Automatic annotation (TrEMBL), chain A:
PANTHER family: CHEMOTAXIS PROTEIN METHYLTRANSFERASE, CHEMOTAXIS PROTEIN METHYLTRANSFERASE 1. Residues 277-303 are annotated as: Disordered. Transmembrane segments: none annotated. One of its GO terms (biological process) is methylation. Keywords: Methyltransferase, S-adenosyl-L-methionine, Transferase. This is protein-glutamate O-methyltransferase. SUPFAM superfamilies: Chemotaxis receptor methyltransferase CheR, N-terminal domain, S-adenosyl-L-methionine-dependent methyltransferases. Residues 1-275 form the CheR-type methyltransferase domain.
From TrEMBL, chain B:
The modification 4-aspartylphosphate is found at D53. It comes from the Bacteria. Keywords: Phosphoprotein. This is Response regulatory domain-containing protein. One of its GO terms (biological process) is phosphorelay signal transduction system. It holds the Pfam family Response_reg. Residues 3-120 form the Response regulatory domain. SMART domains: REC.
């Protein structure tokens, strides 16, 4: 049975309030297709009964409410997504952070909206491959997501064949994964670098450690402008001085908040807190490219 | 335009891969097995990229890979296995023989594009 306009309005308000995700009326088909499995899991015969159930218990923390909110998230992700941000991480952001943190030898890297963990583990593999000195540091990759199922998956580090086909260099597959049945489990030396927990970016934030590098990619796109602004301004407050921020390919701080400077490097860019990026060792806007499209994987595999 | 060679004994797979590579900006040649590919390579311009199935009659993809990597003129050609072989030993064996990347069937256009991006050969 299709969603009535009244039910759609109720649902989209509910989802906006609990997750900040904006569902426009043209998404009604998507909403329906995502609610059907929730109805099935709860043993409810159709979507309008599901909405009635939610109306009767509309707290954002009710089980039915959380199931519906989680069903509205888009969890698409893959290893080394867009490649360039991970090149920037390796060639600039990690070396800079290591220099800043030399005295306390500890690094915190945040994958805010980590989905099933591919982003967090891409960071972990970059560190293992290119920064052996960090093996004696306290390195925490903090993955957070609103979806409990995604947080569990991040903790487990088990991926399907379809998932390991996506963006993961084959040399890293053979080095860091083992095959378990038809799935691929990432090694303990990497899962131990990643701490995953549930966190709603649009809700009250737990106390977070000061972050040296923040990746908040492909999540702000789902929110309206005031929410994006509020979240980015909270991100500023958890960032260490001179820390860096990476956003998704279609996301920008421009026209959202002016708390950040955009730093261009090669054919890519990242963000710095304004004024907090003035140290002499850091590149300035429009600095000479220091790399260009360096492959993440050795070009010739294991040769 | 960058040139690619697709080697697979299934004509359906050859067509799918050729369509994907065309959409990614390549012009594409096709071969039915390793021996056919070596023959075509001796007559065509040097491709930038070769996609190689593993299981094929006459000369399989692994044998082709070993042979092609023994020929100095193909040193700078990117070679990617695209195969139903999904054991870690096979991936390792292909990498050791000189494959640059490895895709497990089934695949989508995104999979191919993402792997090529890793090698600096994405959509052009
Ligand atoms: C498209 S994925 C992005 C994953 C990864 N960062 C990447 O770029 O590949 C978006 C993720 O944002 C999460 N998300 C959506 N709304 C959220 C919120 N209010 N707070 C925290 N996470 C949220 C979803 O659960 C989903 O896993
Ligand atoms: Mg075959």
């Amino acid at each position: 049975m299709a969603l009535t306009p009244g039910d759609f309005t109720f649902l989209s308000n509910y989802v906006k309030n609990s997750t900040a995700i904006v569902l426009t009326p043209d998404k009604d088909y998507l909403v329906e297709s995502r609610l059907n499995p929730v109805a099935r899991r709860l043993g409810v015969s159709n979507i309008s009964d599901l909405v009635s159930k939610l109306r009767a218990n509309p707290s954002p923390t009710s089980e039915i409410g959380m199931m519906i909110s989680e069903a509205m998230t888009t969890n698409e992700t893959y290893f080394f997504r867009d490649v360039k941000p991970f090149d920037v991480l390796r060639s600039e952001l990690l070396p800079q952070a290591i220099e800043r943190r030399g005295s306390d030898r500890s690094l915190n890297i945040w994958s805010g909206a980590c989905s099933s963990g591919q982003e967090a583990y891409s960071i972990a593999m970059t560190i293992k491959e290119h920064f052996p000195t960090l093996s004696t540091w306290r390195v925490r990759i903090i993955g957070t997501d609103i979806s409990r199922a995604m947080v569990e998956r991040t903790k487990e580090g088990i991926f399907s064949q379809i998932e390991i086909n996506r963006g993961l260099p084959a040399p890293l597959l053979v080095k860091y994964f083992s095959k378990v049945g038809s799935e691929w489990k990432i090694k303990g030396e990497l899962t131990s670098m990643v701490d995953a927990s549930v966190m709603n970016l649009a809700g009250n934030w737990p106390i977070l450690p000061r972050m040296d590098i923040v990746l908040m990619r492909n999540v702000l796109i789902y929110f309206d402008l005031p929410t994006k602004r509020a979240i980015l301004e909270k991100v500023v407050r958890v960032m260490a001085p001179n820390a860096s921020l990476l956003l998704g390919g279609s996301e920008t701080t421009m026209n959202v908040t002016n708390e950040f400077d955009r730093v261009t490097t090669g054919t890519s860019f990242y963000y710095r807190i304004k004024g907090g990026g003035a140290s002499s060792s850091s590149p300035s806007i429009g600095s000479t490219p220091t790399f260009r499209g360096t492959p993440v994987a050795p070009r010739a595999g294991l040769r | 335009m960058a040139l690619a060679l697709v080697i697979d004994d299934s004509s359906a797979t050859r067509m799918i891969l050729a369509r994907i590579l065309t959409e990614l900006g390549y012009s594409v040649e096709k071969a039915e097995n390793g021996a056919d590919a070596l023959h075509k390579l001796s007559k065509m311009a040097k491709p930038e990229l070769i996609l190689i199935d593993w299981n094929m009659p006459v000369m399989n993809g692994y044998e082709f890979l070993v042979k092609a990597r023994s020929m100095a003129q193909f040193d700078d050609v990117t070679m990617m296995m695209v195969t139903t072989e999904t054991e870690i030993e096979q991936v390792l064996k292909a990498l050791e023989a000189g494959a640059n990347e490895y895709v497990m069937k089934p695949f989508t256009k995104d999979v191919i594009d993402e792997k090529l991006s890793l090698l600096g050969l994405g959509a052009r």
